[in-house]
Amino acid sequence: MSKLTGLIPAAGKGVRARPYTEMIPKGMLDINGVPNIQRNISLMRDDLGIEDICIVVGYLGSQIKDYFGDGRKFNVNIRYIENKFLERGLAFSILLARDYIDDYFCVILSDECYINSNHHELTSFPYKKSLATCGTMSVDDRELIKQNYSVVVDNDRIVRLTEKPCNVTNDIMGSGTFIFSAEIFDFLEKAFSQKKNGFVEFITFLDKLCQTDEQILNFNLTGTYVNINDRNSLNLAKYYERRKQFNQNIISMLVYSEGKEKDIAFTINRYRKLNLIHQIFVILPHDNGIEKIVLECGASSITCPPEVQLYGEKIKYAMGKMPGDIIMLCEADYSFPSRDVVKLLAYLKEADMVVGTRTTRQLIEQGADMRGIVRFANVMLAKLLEILWWNFEGRFTDVGCTFRAIWRSNFNKIKDRLNSKGPEFSAEMIIEVLSSRDRVIEIPVNYFNRSQLMHIKYQNPKTFFRFLFLILKKRLQFFILKKK
């Protein structure tokens, strides 16, 4: 049996996914650090044995070309086909591949995410007995069928396809996985020749073929499927992928220290007793008096060079050096109890970064400094950030909480844009994750300031204005970038 060729249509403007697709093609939206097109290339290569892949590009197509190149670094051969007539739709993108494909080929849409699917079984499926094979799935949510297309099957043969049906009669949903004979190009060309407006609706085109003598077979896909067409579906795809292997992730904790905390051993031991954290690192200033204690407790130390002195620059320096799929940040004085680590990790399946808030009145322990003017200032700054980034779906009550968790892939995405040296770095992290159109969730955490070191150094009017200036500057920069 000859090898299949792969075809990935990725030319569309992704209108339904705006504003996420204003500056990036929809297929390049990432699922935990990997663009979805790359996931589908891997699926074609590993599950279907495909070596040659054509990608149809159009809207912002240079980004796709620059990222994948000729495909060698992904162990495939990639050719690009440019669609200059995006209004002509998916059917036209497929027809453009006619000069590059002369045998059976597999189409997987660039915005469809498959997790733990059975695509590999297609290699033994008798697709050569038909003009086309459509991948379908049995779903219990009929609203999903209404968002895609419905399928009616008689034995293994598809007899009806309906794009975005109003009425759903069964539980079969059509996906964006197809295998076609090269003969499909002749039928497409004929269909376009009969359309004065130059547009052929692809599923309707296939439905008409079903009602002729041309045979279209049904292949039952299993696994998890998400059609990425808006913010919710993108976050859902990330959640499914993270849930699949969450317990296999390496969780590293970075403990921020001023180098003088005498109770550092208490803090390290409290977090270690959870048996959730694989590695604990303590970031230390160049001159410190506790490195020996840190090492005796079984933690690792990251000592900053002399010129790295403030909170933000120290955190960024250490995060760039430590390993881990998930990075958690906390303080050496045990201001945040270890029991709240579970909260951060629970929400991290749903988010790209989870940050704590110390402003929840019921969770501020007696003796903490998050009261009065300090609490008011943090809430005010958080609400300013929320308003200025309102369309980015962030809701905040505390911009300065240092207790948080972030995926390594998301930190790698934003690290070159993190330039703040002081405590305002905490707000900058939130802003840059939001600016990447990723999700930040804020959760209430218990708070009790056990040490005055951070209080003396950072809780003052100067810090307030550093945060304020940073928030306003970042919003202006993002506005200018968007205008370009």
For the residues shown, what is the average pLDDT?
A: 89
- Summing up helix and strand content along with how strands pair, one would put the structural category as alpha/beta
User: Which oligomeric state applies?
Assistant: single chain
Rg from Cα: 26 Å
Q: Output the number of helix runs.
A: 16
How many E-type strands?
A: 20
The share of residues in helices is 25-40%
**Unreliable segments (pLDDT under 50, ≥5 consecutive)?**
none
Shape: elongated
The end-to-end distance, rounded to whole angstroms, is 50 Å
Strand residues, percent: 15-25%
> For the report, how would you describe the main beta sheet?
9 strands, mixed
List keywords for this structure.
484 residues
Task: Report on this structure.
The protein has helices at 36-48, 61-68, 89-95, 142-147, 184-193, 202-210, 231-244, 264-272, 291-296, 311-319, 341-348, 372-388, 408-414, 425-435, 453-458, 461-483, and strands spanning 5-10, 30-31, 34-35, 52-57, 77-82, 105-108, 112-115, 132-138, 149-154, 157-163, 172-180, 216-220, 224-227, 251-256, 279-284, 300-303, 326-331, 353-357, 404-407, 440-444. α12 packs parallel to α16. Helices cover 34% and strands 21% of the residues. The strands form four sheets. Strands 1, 4, 5, 6, 8, 9, 10, 11 and 12 form a nine-stranded mixed β-sheet that branches. The longest helix has 23 residues, at 461-483. The model has no long low-confidence stretch (mean pLDDT 89). The chain is an alpha/beta fold and 484 residues long.
Topology:
Elements: E1 5-10, E2 30-31, E3 34-35, H1 36-48, E4 52-57, H2 61-68, E5 77-82, H3 89-95, E6 105-108, E7 112-115, E8 132-138, H4 142-147, E9 149-154, E10 157-163, E11 172-180, H5 184-193, H6 202-210, E12 216-220, E13 224-227, H7 231-244, E14 251-256, H8 264-272, E15 279-284, H9 291-296, E16 300-303, H10 311-319, E17 326-331, H11 341-348, E18 353-357, H12 372-388, E19 404-407, H13 408-414, H14 425-435, E20 440-444, H15 453-458, H16 461-483
Parallel strand pairs: 1-4, 1-6, 4-5, 8-12, 14-15, 14-17, 15-16, 18-20
Antiparallel strand pairs: 2-3, 6-11, 7-13, 8-11, 9-10, 9-11, 17-19, 18-19
